[in-house]
């Protein structure tokens, strides 16, 4: 399966220039995302950029052409394609990139998951295969993000979108947010979709604000006061639900 990495967001909440180039523990988030895909079963990564991220586009082209350095040995086996999108928001850019990029089904990855690794990516692919559905939506309990100290926007919650994310006290299905990693079966939303939820930190820490970056760096450094970084497969909370597939939303 091919992957689509969303690299076109403005990153205004992080306030550190182009979001994909923001460093986490000395390595840009876009390089970390591509490293994770290179270490997985993904064959080709399509990087969706926008007019908001011209330097990110240059970085990806350099990495693709082997002229910018900073890649990994595993990255040499990963095909890399740049897809230009209009920069009109996550969902609009996702749809534009899917229309011009990989053939479905496609793994979609938000660039702001610096803890993601190849094993977690493969676990998502395996979960979709086990579900036997066209699409897969990965979600994280708001309570888990709060436990970790990561931000969770109420606007991206399932259930009552007007609720305050800080009010969530459990792992119930209504109190879960998108992880930023999904499998999209069809651009028009046709087909069925499975839902899987996890407390895994690799899928729970989206760097949207400075505090999220500090949290990710503490976890990567093995800070004894931070959550341990998981390895290997992903533990899913339940069998999930099935419904109508859709490209879905994600962080910006």
TrEMBL record:
Protein name: GTP:adenosylcobinamide-phosphate guanylyltransferase
Gene Ontology molecular functions: nucleotidyltransferase activity
InterPro entries from the UniProt entry: MobA-like_NTP_Trfase, Nucleotide-diphossugar_trans
Region (Disordered): 222-252
Domain MobA-like NTP transferase: 3-139
Keywords on record: Nucleotidyltransferase, Transferase
PANTHER family: ADENOSYLCOBINAMIDE-PHOSPHATE GUANYLYLTRANSFERASE, MOLYBDENUM COFACTOR GUANYLYLTRANSFERASE
Gly residues composition bias: residue spans: 242-252
One protein family per Pfam: NTP_transf_3
């Amino acid at each position: 399966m091919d992957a689509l990495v969303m690299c076109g967001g403005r990153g205004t909440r992080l306030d550190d220039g182009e979001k994909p180039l923001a460093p986490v523990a000395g390595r840009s988030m876009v390089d970390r995302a591509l490293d994770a895909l290179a270490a997985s079963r993904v064959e080709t990564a399509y990087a969706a950029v926008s007019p908001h991220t011209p330097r990110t586009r240059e970085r990806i082209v350099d990495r693709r052409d082997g002229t910018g350095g900073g890649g990994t040995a595993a990255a040499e086996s990963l095909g890399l394609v740049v897809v230009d999108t209009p920069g009109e928001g996550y969902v609009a850019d996702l749809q534009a990139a899917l229309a011009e990029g990989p053939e479905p089904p496609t793994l979609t990855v938000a660039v702001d998951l610096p803890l993601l690794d190849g094993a977690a990516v493969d676990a998502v692919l395996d979960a979709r295969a086990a579900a036997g559905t066209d699409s897969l939506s990965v979600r994280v309990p708001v309570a888990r993000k709060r436990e970790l100290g990561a931000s969770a926007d109420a606007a991206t919650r399932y259930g009552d979108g007007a609720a305050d994310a800080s009010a969530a006290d459990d792992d119930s299905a209504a109190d879960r947010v998108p992880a930023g990693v999904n499998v999209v079966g069809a651009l028009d939303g046709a087909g069925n979709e499975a839902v899987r939820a996890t407390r895994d930190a690799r899928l729970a820490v989206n760097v949207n604000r400075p505090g999220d970056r500090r949290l990710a760096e503490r976890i990567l450094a093995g800070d004894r006061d931070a959550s341990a970084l998981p390895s290997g497969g992903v533990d899913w909370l339940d069998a999930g639900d099935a419904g109508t597939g859709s490209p879905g939303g994600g962080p910006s």
